[in-house]
Amino acid sequence: MGSKARLWGAWPLLLSMALFLTSDQPLQAQVAPEAGQISGSLPAGGGVALVQWSGGTPTQLFAVADGRGCTATAAWLSSGGFLVGYLRGAPTFVNESFVSRFPGGVLPSTPLLLVCRAASAPGGGSAGTRSIGSCPLFPDDNPWAADISSAPRHPLSDRYVGHIMASGGNRFLHADFGENPDYGIPYVIVPAGEPSVPVTFDYADESDVGPYPIPSGVRIEAGSDRHALIVREGECRLYELFDLRRSGASWSAGSGAIFDLRSNALRPDGWTSADAAGLPILPGLVRVDEVRAGAINHALRFTVSRTQRAYIHPATHFASSITDASAPPMGLRLRLKADFDLAGYRGQALVVLTALKRYGMLLADNGSNWYISGATDPGWDDADLNQLKQVPGSAFEAVDTGPLISTAR
Predict the structure, then answer these.
(1) Per residue in 263-306, pLDDT tens?
(2) How many CA atoms are closer than 13 Å to the CA of 111, on its beta-carbon side?
């Protein structure tokens, strides 16, 4: 259905919403949402929905909507008998009326109209594909988006996989994310006008100076790595920080990197990022909205416990002194073997495994063996994801994607 047809079909809901909200009557059709949740059905296929929000800023609202498969583009609600809107990614002056009326965010259980962008077919750069908010998640010819299902097998594949399996610890695939809010790596999308702040770095010589658009209440990964991933709309840049800390009004971090989401440019050889391999983190995360859309169209991020003192592009940095040629280098790409039987797998796990056959996974950091990374989200189903623990590391093979590089900064 074309955009004009969708808009024509939506006008009765828009009119009824306007009449309802401007009447200042309480919303009766929805159950009051829990904290950090939206109550009501969201149109993942695009359209508008009358919902209740548990309260908070538009940025928080849009992040929750994204996680439920709705790439939200705007929110409208009633104030003093008028509809007031917040347009995602718009310049600050466009949303000035909304912000002035709701400076602390929307109150709990507020009825509002949420507008969702229609999803494109796989590969089209929309919900469930390679986009984030209103921005592309790197160009379609980016290495993260490469279909490596038919790429040549690496001549050292058996040695790489054997080294991982022999290094001790976990020997099966493992989702390093789940229902627990302390699992996974969170990210946040901020509007084009989000103010930037200076950050000081422990590894300043390999960090991008910034400043960084760190919002108040920024979500930071639980645990020791303390990653923070921020997408600023409008400019479509990705800001990633490792070991982010705040002291009073000042911010500091271990390292930081800024990526243009419309470019394939790599970090300089020998440079780290917020990840040990010098890679961006966000494009390698499994996200709930992708899984609900039925397809992950990019490679995944994963870790192993012992890596080589070398890397393969798009990685640009090593984090090891090991020179054993059997140890896997940063940026090594593995794929699930074509003959691995997916019969019996279901749901979220099946979507992940299907992607691993087509796009594989990129070695990005030192950590637990065979751990794949995902975004923090309450929409994960642990019982479903636990199916991944049945997949042995021996079911993977390495793909030849380029030469080894040992350049240090």
Answers:
(1) 999 999 999 999 999 999 999 999 998 998 889 999 999 999 99
(2) 18
Choose among 86, 26, 27, 82: nearest CA to 56. 86
Buried b (16+ CB within 10 A) or exposed e, 136-168: bbbeeebbbbbebeeeeebebbebbbebbbebe
Identity of the residue numbered 150:
S
How do residues 159-198 score in pLDDT, each as one tens digit?
Answer: 999 999 998 889 999 999 999 989 999 999 999 999 999 9
Contact 377, 67 (CB under 8 A): yes
CA distances from 37 to 28, 30, 32, 90, 375 (A): 17, 12, 9, 24, 16
- Burial of 379 by CB count in 10 Å (0-12 exposed, 13-18 middle, 19+ buried)? middle
CB 311, CB 278: distance < 8 Å = yes
Query: 389-409 pLDDT, tens per residue?
Result: 999 999 999 999 999 999 887
Q: What's the pTM?
A: 0.73
Reduce the DSSP state of residue 120 to 3 states and report it: coil
Cis peptide before 314 (omega within 30 of 0): yes
C-alpha to C-alpha distance for 76 and 14, rounded to whole angstroms: 10
